[in-house]
Amino acid sequence: MPRILVAGATGVTGTAIVDHFADLPDWSVVAAARRDPWRTVAGVEHLRLDLGDRDACRAALAERADITHLAYAAVNENADDIVAGWADQGQIDKNVEMLRNILEPLAADGGALQHVLLVHGLKAYGSHLPHITTKLPFRETDASYKDWNFYHHQQDYVAERQRGAPWNWTILRPGGTIGLAVGGNMNWSLVLTVFAALRKEAGLNLPMPAGTSGIFEMCDSDLIAEATEWAFASPAARNEVFNITNGDVFPLHDIFPILAEEFGIPLGDPRPFDLPAELARIAPLWPALVEAHGLAAPRDLDALLGATPQIVGAWSQSMPPERRLMSGISSTIKLRKAGFTGCADSADVVRKYIRCYRALGIVP
């Protein structure tokens, strides 16, 4: 029976991959993360592991000849300044070392490793660098921004490590990933969902941003999980890099009417506002809201949202025309030609995860 090790299993993407493979009858799942799991999935083995600790990784994995597949969805963010960390050499080195620490024991002679899948993102194309002009659409062959993000350094390491080895690798580069997680540093959909819940609790409407919306591409974490299964099975995915998105584009401001509808609160007239600042003003209401509704969520809002509020300002900003495509547009033709044709309606996906968080008791 194939056994997948999911690194970063408590994050948005890792959670979806764990859920997907746990539902497959012919797979077993090991979920590795530095933090305890935020929810239990039947049949999944949980491995608490700090990927930054080389000795701990070796001790936990050196004897795991049963691991046949690795899905690497782990990332270390600089929680003090997430954006600055994206181009910081220290963060680059740390993230490459984390991957090395988990892969080396699994790839040692005598292991059963067959395939390694890395989940990266559009920062591979410099989408996080507003001072440069990116080439659109983003294509997998473009390595113009190689020195500015750890994704390329991880790719170089894996490609070199794989030479002559009996296993293969695949890299997925999703757009703005949306899914389920608690306490992560890149979970923008949960921050917006909590913001709407707090506005309702305060008896306020939901503000509608003024001006021109930024436009981005979203990727459902469930779609990434499906593509992971496909990549493990398809010869066309061996040692290849693929962009992956839902297949449509989404204006950031369009999320506010969806939130207002889902929470049954009025949508305000368009006005300029700063989302992180608006959230901070009503954040003190959160502990009482948790108690009043008996939520299965931390009373500490920071424990729920992590450092993500730092990066959600784009959802309320007015973008000048030259910055509307703030995260770029990526071509997914290579993935489609290779055989994976999954897609999703981004507005429906937003609704899906609002309802999932409510069903889980994270928000009322």
Please characterize this protein's 3D structure:
By secondary structure, the chain is of the alpha/beta class. The chain folds into 2 domains: 3-177 and 218-244, NAD(P)-binding Rossmann-like Domain (Rossmann fold); 184-216 and 249-327 and 346-359, no CATH class. It is 36% helix and 15% strand. It is built from 13 helices and 13 strands. Strand 1 (3-7), helix 1 and strand 2 (28-33) form a beta-alpha-beta unit. The longest helix is centred in the first third of the chain and has 19 residues, at 89-107.
Write the layout of secondary structure elements.
Layout: E1 3-7, H1 12-22, E2 28-33, E3 45-48, H2 54-61, E4 69-72, H3 82-85, H4 89-107, E5 115-119, H5 150-162, E6 168-174, E7 176-178, H6 188-201, E8 206-209, E9 215-216, E10 218-220, H7 221-233, E11 240-244, E12 250-251, H8 255-263, E13 267-271, H9 275-282, H10 286-293, H11 301-305, H12 333-338, H13 346-359
Parallel strand pairs: 1-2, 1-4, 2-3, 4-5, 5-6, 6-11, 7-10, 8-13
Antiparallel strand pairs: 9-12
Helix pairs in contact: 1-7, 2-4, 4-5, 8-13
The geometry reads as globular
* Element order: H for helix, E for strand: EHEEHEHHEHEEHEEEHEEHEHHHHH
What is the residue-averaged pLDDT? 94
CATH-assigned homologous superfamily of the largest domain: NAD(P)-binding Rossmann-like Domain
In short:
This protein has 364 residues and is α/β, with parallel strands linked by helices. The chain has helices at residues 12-22, 54-61, 82-85, 89-107, 150-162, 188-201, 221-233, 255-263, 275-282, 286-293, 301-305, 333-338, 346-359; strands at 3-7, 28-33, 45-48, 69-72, 115-119, 168-174, 176-178, 206-209, 215-216, 218-220, 240-244, 250-251, 267-271. Helix 2 packs parallel to helix 4 (89-107) and helix 8 runs parallel beside helix 13.
